[in-house]
Amino acid sequence: MFQWDKSCSYDEQHERRFLTTARSRLRRLAAELNLPPGSYDLRSNKAGVAVSGEVTLHHDCVYIQVSQFGLSSGHGILIRTCQGRNDYSGGPNHFVALAMLDDVCALAAAVRAITGLGPQDPAQSRAA
């Protein structure tokens, strides 16, 4: 498992792994949420040496961003609704733990609960 709670500050190798791993997990999250290809953007920002950078999944109705902004709080995944891929401020901010990236199904359930995106029951989405 990836060490989400290990700081990326001044550790270029760890920052690179953080961004690569977060991007991979958000790609799996998009699949778990049944987001059609082309309906979302997946962006990375390396940022500076003192921070982790961020990875963003931006769909037409949900904006999810992963970074180590709240490392001491354990939270690092921002989830909010939006109205299209040009909406960067969206609805209210909700935060969940970075460790949820290790359980993409649970993260998808949190996204659904916060945004109302897709069916609440994963069995329903697989049956469709």
Automatic annotation (TrEMBL):
- Mind telling me what this protein is named? Uncharacterized protein
Top-rank taxon of the source lineage equals Bacteria
Q: Which organism is it from?
A: Rhizobium loti
